[in-house]
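Aim 2 progress update. The chain analyzed this quarter is reproduced below.
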Amino acid sequence: MKNFKLKTAITALATAAVVFSSSVSAETDWPKRPVNLIVAFSAGGNSDYNARALAKHLTKELGQPVVVSNIAGSGGSIAAAQVKEMKPDGYNVLVTQLSLNIAEASKMVNFGFKDFDPCCVFSAAADEVLVTNAEAPFNTIQELITESEKNPGKYKLAVNTGASTLWIAIGLQQAGAKLNIVSSGGSGERLPLLLGRHVDIIPMPYNMVQTYVDKGQFKYLANVSNVRSKNDKLVNVPTLRESGVPAGYAYYNTMFFPKGTDPEIIAKLSAATGKVINENAEYRKEVEGFFQEPVYMNTEDTIKIWDKEREELLKISDLLQGKK
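Predicted structure tokens:
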């Protein structure tokens, strides 16, 4: 009887091993159907544009349609929460950026990027700027801080609570600014707020506000990136950190799979993405024309940069939660 049970157990294990092996080998043929890039923000913004530009070329590389859909809300947290629970079969991929680290550090969600399988960084917003109306009585960050100290709460700064722009608000407060922080959606929602004079300052992608600056409606206060822009029109605009504000970042648009995805699938998408970014001249011309930086980081480097950023934000977790 014992031998029978032992043989039965061995047979069961062997059968399971065969099933597991065949399922893994079958997935190496991925993709067999369309792949969905789920952008965690509304259409028309930075992440959405970059995802759509890449998807067009990934379709050719992978031999299956790569489509883009948007699940906006809560600074990208709604999309992240949904993708986190999806089947790890390689057909749903989250596209997000810094906001996922912000949401975790601010305790807005009880998960973070480590609850996904990172794939790769595929772009960066090189020119993210802080702008105000041309008639505003300040032209620099230090002048803004001084004016806000004279009139606490008078000037409204619109940011996406729980998203990357919240870091700007915290940094300005740390630098001494006495602003009225207004919760907004993404960049597509913030622009009308400044145009309608409902707020006084907004962080925006350069490409979305350059026309208004050229027309004399807006003016730049700072570049929110960690380094100055190479753009001729922004080269003299200082970064927030140069202006004495302890904040600044790069929008590293990143792809994440649900936890448990076959590593071969992750590697295949990462390699295809790297090929498009590093070798496809048409793609590079397209995104650079939109003032985006075609950046590729493999999975290992992606994890490193996300880890570094996460640790920096966890240090100001209480501030992000409004405790101090």
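Residues 281 and 287 are 10 Å apart (CA to CA). The chain has twelve helices and ten strands. These observations will guide the mutagenesis experiments scheduled for the next reporting period.
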